[in-house]
User: Fold this.
Amino acid sequence: MKNFSALIQKHQLFEKGSAIVIGVSGGPDSLALLHLLNNMRETWQLKLIVVHVDHMFRGEQSEAEMNFVLSYCRDLDIICEAKQIDVTEYARRHQLSSQVAGRECRYQFFKEVLDKYQAHYLALGHHGDDQIETILMRLVRGATGTSLAGIQMKRKFHHGFIIRPLLPYTKEEILNYCRKQQLLPRFDPSNEKTNYTRNRFRKYVLPFLKKENPLVHERFQHFSETLLEDETYLQELTKKYLNTVLKRKEKSKVEIEINGFLELPMPLQRRAIQLILNYLYGTIPASLSSIHIENLLTLLSQNHPSGSLDYPNGLKVIKSYQNCLFTFEQEEVKAYYYELDFPSSLILPNGYVIKSELVRNASIKRDRNETFLLNMDSFDKPLIVRTRKPGDKIQLKGMIGRKKVKDIFIDEKIPIHNRSSWPIVLDGNGRILWIPGLKKSMYEAESTGNGVFVELQYKEL
Assistant:
């Protein structure tokens, strides 16, 4: 095949002296790739290791393909790591489609072989026709960002890289190469079944495109490479601006500030959501599409203060006033009830602490809702710290009647997901004295004077 070695150098796919693991199914694509790399083995001082997975879908036929690969590698004096995996059972156990299960099993074995031989390159036989099919399938499905660029010629994988040196070539060029080199590859009959989406694109769409332009694979490859360049730049820009609106980033949850987010240009908004999803999921589910992102953008731009969306695999997106929370943690915070000693420090489940101290001649910090002062003789003991209950009401200073705690949360625009863990401080008689950080009751000490006081402080850990 023309310019194969030059293509390796142009795209810097690997260096001389590299150890390369080659995925070989026995079909024409992977067999041609193995043959091409083997031709370079001596001059480039390459260490080649072949890896083959028998998915056990086709019984004796797939086992025969495994034995063919083993035999071919013996003839070339190349190490071959072959493994039979019951993918059907794996798919049943993990409730996956056969294709997804096959990929998971295959790539896990690839990692094991890479580690065994301390190799940093995994070479796979995807070609230009595969690129066209992949881009079209993802476009139809509603993919976004770098996913639309299809198959990358070189990308990070495990402790190294996946490389695909055959992307600039068509299937027909590969078949011609196999015929010329008398390689005698094996053919998987499942590739002809039209119940697979990819096979339908291959059979019905690809021939039309090639008739319109015989070099259409080159146009798709150019599209892929330029889109990746654009996306790389835009994503770096997005990371920079996303950090300005990020309020919280934990293992299973991310929270952003909505007003600042909506000030970003729309292309950065879409990519920011994609970055958040990539971080939380690790591997984006196939069922997640651009529709999910558009629905979220609509939710965030609406005037209604709250709302939520359910994403695949249990991810929930919750809008509450000026905050938007992405979280896998769906469990409600358990109600708590503590008696507060003084002096003491009470660590709360929401990441805050209430500190109590005994003071004399205290100064009242009336303008701060993070502190509360009680005269030791003016309340029933003990002090209680608990989560809210339905019907909770507080007597605010200067107010006739009592106000619902629920309404205070709404007025103060406290995110819905934070309300169930917010502390309420009461005295032994059940009177709500203080909603830390939000409101004080009429029962706070009026003046310092002489005497002993309990000073309460509400602080973040």
